[in-house]
Input
Amino acid sequence: MPKIGLISLGCAKNLVDSEHMLARLRAAGWEITEDMGEADVGVVNTCGFIEAAKSEAIETILDVAQYKQRGRMKGLVVTGCMVQRYAEEMKTELPEIDALCGTGSYENIVDAASAAFGGHKAAYMADMAAAALEGDRDRLTPPYTAYLKIAEGCSNRCGFCIIPQLRGPFRSREMDALLSEARALADAGVKELIVIAQDTTRYGVDLPGRRRLLPTLLRRLCALDFRWVRLHYLYPDQITDELIDVIAAEPKIVKYLDIPLQHVSRRILRAMHRPGDEAAFDALIARLRQRIPGLVLRTSLIVGLPGETEEEFAALCTFLQRTKIERVGVFEFSPEEGTEAATLPGQIDAQTKAARRLIVEELQSGVLDDYNTARHGETMEVLCEGFDDAQQLWVGRTYADSVEVDGHVYFASDSAPQAGDFVSVRITESLGPDLLGVQQKGE
Output
């Protein structure tokens, strides 16, 4: 049978889509290869969220297309958010592409691959809202870590965000299907389950009964054989007392929460169509830290939204210094066509946006240094991810470090742990954003 290779770009939710496509291809008899030089057909699953992601997608598409010119590759398939957004433009401006699949058409990946392999042009652009939410997965994560996507799409309509136009409205998966998938992941040896959606806290609001079902789902996930259950993308206005109680009470839920705030200025947040303000976020963070000991927070912020004043930016910086949020991803506003924010007056120049991003990154570097220094001398549970040849040390993550977005712990060991093992490591010093340590005897 022909071989197929796939490159997945963008977020973890996109990665899960890639896993579904690979499972369909394998079931249809395609052989999966990690080497594009061996592939008869290449697939690029794109992100189309912001300008940088679009540029990366185009570069990757052109790189893979080179295998058609100088190698055995006969066809190129492009899927994902960028296709959903720019299918017609891609047909004319990227003739290297043979077949396209939008975000409602992942079920057509076998047809698309077959068309491309046969030298035919094809495009599959089904209704996003009717896309299948279930299916087998050929996982691309390490054996010990997996994502569980509990919903698709988004109905929030943030002023800066194009996602609802690329993914459709928010659609929760049925709980029984989620638990069946999670049980299979646990049986396969997954130890860290990462629960994701565009807006995880709204899980269940579109199902019969229209209730927020995340606390119920989490209790049932914690009854399965996972060591860590990690939560990403909790909207600040949807964090209920019941949810906080479950997070605090369940030992398997790691005390690490990803809560995208985006800003603290009430005026800027309303321009974004986002909830909250500085006072509300102060109160939420205080409540979370009081009720969940050891809590580590991650947030995402946007600087340079049209009309953002120096005073509003200064207030954001003061908030970060005061609250000491441990993990922060800061992004320059990207005026995406089709979004309301792209048409707002008072667009801020690129130099100012870059300067503000660098200021936040510098502030956050100090917060992270303080957090890491406070860990010196502490013994922490670390999920080993293998041996790092560059450092000549084993490497892993604590509960405070999520996959790819946070730091690592590098540690010496006499026992040669395996990837997927949980070990106790005494932290001795910092190494930039990372920590150094020694595995404790007997572990």
Notes: The chain has twelve helices and 19 strands. The chain has a mean pLDDT of 95.
